[in-house]
Amino acid sequence: MSIPIILLIIFATVLAMEWVAWASHKYIMHGWGWGWHRDHHEPHDNALEKNDLYGIVGAVMSISMFAIGSPLVLGANAWEPGTWVGLGILFYGIIYTVVHDGLVHQRYFKYVPRSGYAKRLVQAHKLHHATIGKAGGVSFGFVVARDPAKLKAELKVQREAGIAVVRDAAL
């Protein structure tokens, strides 16, 4: 497989993982998987959260793709692109850890962005955490963030429609 194709697979996987993360966050974490995600939305002093188990799920996805792409595991049945998909998932996991857990939630370092995309990302995720409970909400992506003003307007509509319970300070 040529290097440009390998790089394309890795890059496409990283991009696709933001959609996978968005859909998982909206429909699993704020749906039937709320039991693992709830503590991420509640104040606590623990170093780890049940929500961190979702990182293990991502790691299993990456490792599984490495195995599918490995001739050592599957011999002649190995699917080489699996290795590169696994690497893309791994890269997304690293980006998620640094950007979401590190920058947005300040789990590893303290830095408050004053401008630019990093500030927009932090603001958008604060609006995600403005709802109480799993219903409603905005900004389910981890790396892509929409305009905070539009997200605020969306939250206001959700609150007025009774879809979400929103902390008053958020609006």
From TrEMBL:
Residues annotated as transmembrane: 53-74, 81-99
InterPro entries attached to this UniProt entry: BETA-OHASE-like (IPR045019), Fatty_acid_hydroxylase (IPR006694)
Protein name: Beta-carotene hydroxylase
Highest taxon of the lineage: Bacteria
Cross-referenced PANTHER family: BETA-CAROTENE 3-HYDROXYLASE 1, CHLOROPLASTIC (PTHR31899)
Domain Fatty acid hydroxylase stretches: 11-141
Family under the similarity heading: Belongs to the sterol desaturase family.
GO biological process, one term: xanthophyll biosynthetic process
Lineage, top ranks: Bacteria, Pseudomonadati, Pseudomonadota, Alphaproteobacteria, Sphingomonadales
Pfam family, any one: FA_hydroxylase
Keywords: Carotenoid biosynthesis, Membrane, Oxidoreductase, Transmembrane, Transmembrane helix
GO molecular function: beta-carotene 3-hydroxylase activity; iron ion binding
